[in-house]
Amino acid sequence: MVLGEVMKQTGDLSLMKKLNKALVLELIRHESPTSRARIAEKTGLTKATVSSLVTELIDANLAYESGAGESRGGRKPVTLLFQEKAGYAIGIDLGTDGMTAVLTDLNGTIVDERRKKNNNRETLSAIAVLGSCIRELMDSAPTSPYGIIGIGIGIPGFSDEAGNVLFAPNLGWENVPLQSLLEQEYNLPIVIENEANVGALGESRYGLAKGTANLVHVSIGAGIGTGILLKGELYRGASGFSGEMGHISIHPDGKPCRCGNVGCWELYASENALVDAARKEYEDPDITLDGLLEKAEQGEELALQLLEEHARYLGVGLINIINSFNPELIILGGRLAAAEKWLSEPLQHFVESRSLPYPRAKLDIRFSQLGDRATVLGAASIAIANFFASPKLSVE
Length: 396
Ligand SMILES: [Zn+2]
Description:
The protein is α/β, with parallel strands linked by helices. Helix content is 44%, strand content 20%.
């Protein structure tokens, strides 16, 4: 619906008030501590309008005042702060071998966390463990006016708008109505979103990508997912299935992939690909990523070679991304970000020697500093954004 239609239907005054209140709340959220005078200056609203909207927000427990009555001597202005403890969100990263779940306040600060190992390829068991994470975090949440405001879940696959997991190849899930199952159980708003998309949001709100408008987040785990942020917005494609760069074929006669293609990038550059190569070279079926990185730390030649080779495979895909999207920033996230020390230099070198100079000119390639928390934070941030966009918070 376009704005003009809304205005005709609801009347200008009520809509204007709603928009202004949302604007004032947004300033208090993002610029806290602030003041009524500053808000009036920034929005162009009259001081009387700002004051009345702020009073409503204070009554709604979303803002509070500080500084009043503390003055000794000269008059101190009353500071307005966002009440980030007015409610709590849950963010979950559903992986193949386990899950991470966090409870955050409305600013996205983590107040509690659960990590559980589980074979999530078994759908029923995965849903049971998801449930226990949710219940434990709900129980541990401090008492607050709005309670738990919603749950965001990042999944390694595709979902539709109703939150059905349509296809998650590395989980082996097809058509799982995850959102409706959880909504029935917990009676809370639930959002399901691709984990690389969620990670891109997490990086842009809380990580290295703050303020970056054109970003590609490459999440490297069991597979490779990419979340693409263009002009500050997630690019989802025509039906929400964009960003499957992990299935760009880098080898026309390569290994067969579960997606139906052969030679997909993730078969060569994911964490699984690196661990498989290490198992083969070391003739040790139990070696893990941590085990390999320990060997590299000790300066073992074979481990260093494996990581250098892996950087080249990563680079091949990154060059495709750079030439396609001309991003300002590529963030490499997921568990493989822990290997930054060994991957970074050969990767930068490979990319510099092979990508087109103009798309690369203003590009920065960085490893996530949020580690595997980009996904949980991004998932919680979607739940928080939905809460602030919900009609419950608008004016009567
Ligand atoms: Zn594939």
